[in-house]
Amino acid sequence: MKPVFKDGVWPVVLTPFREDGGLDMTAYRALLEYYIGNGVAGLFAVCMSSELYELTPEERLTLAREAVAVSAGRVPVVASAFLGNSEAEKMQSVFDMAATGVDAVVIPACQLVPETADEAGFRRAFETLLGRTAGIRFGLYECPHPYHRLISPALLGELARLAGERLAFLKDTCCDAAVIAAKLVACTGTPLKLYNAHLTTCLESLQLGAAGYSGTSANFYPGLLAEQAACFRSDTARARELQQFFNLVQRHVEFKYPRSAKLFLRECGVPLTDFCRVACDELDRDQMIQLRAFHTGVQAFARNSQPQLTGETAI
């Protein structure tokens, strides 16, 4: 079994598309290098930010293989599977994704069981998955679509102990520090690492014992998030300063995502188009001016200057 994942930032990897809608693998490689160059701890490829449900099964595998190849062992890579129109297709997607060389196959919780299933049903489904996939390491993702299934602290503790070394990653989307604290207590002594997707509770969750952050903001300032993950114990004042800045600019991150993230990364030098397969309106002239001001502000703050943000809190 591969080593336990490192603490830090796991960006939710975007999918670059050409203007004709096909995968842009040149841009994808540049994007992956951008993340790694900004000090991330791992890469969560093939997730909601990747436009998961708009990708074909083969495209998901292509993106995962390329992420593994580009990383070349510098950081671990995880990617989502258990997707398809039947149980057989879902299981085959797990085996196919594992064969790409990813460090863990991430199971969206909302795909494992129907919305009507209770916690006992979820546990049985997870146990069945383990029994049918010997040797594959997993992650869990509280994916909000097609429905938002959260895993309770008690159930998470059961799953972590049931799976042992085979459950290594959780992308937590509960957005509640108290619940995160309970989950961390429930999983004490297991290899499971919790990565919080909620930016506002990012610092608090790190202080509680979360392994790091895995959310949309890592597509705007992964280096600053990595700095916070590295300094929250040794330089509490800087960690608080970073959190205050993150809270200030969060509305910019949320606005017309993921298109805005692709345009922001283009300002950073990553050769992305703003093409999205998910429904997402284009930014108008004023919004582009504001996005560029947001980019300038992030760059200024990264140089330990005061952020030069203008206008309203949303672009």
TrEMBL record:
The lineage of its organism: Bacteria, Pseudomonadati, Lentisphaerota, Lentisphaeria, Victivallales. Belongs to the DapA family. This is 4-hydroxy-tetrahydrodipicolinate synthase. InterPro entries: Aldolase_TIM (IPR013785), DapA-like (IPR002220). The active site is at 141 (proton donor/acceptor), 171 (schiff-base intermediate with substrate). CDD domains: DHDPS-like (cd00408). GO terms for molecular function: 4-hydroxy-tetrahydrodipicolinate synthase activity. It comes from the Bacteria. It comes from Victivallis vadensis. Keywords: Lyase. It holds the Pfam family DHDPS.
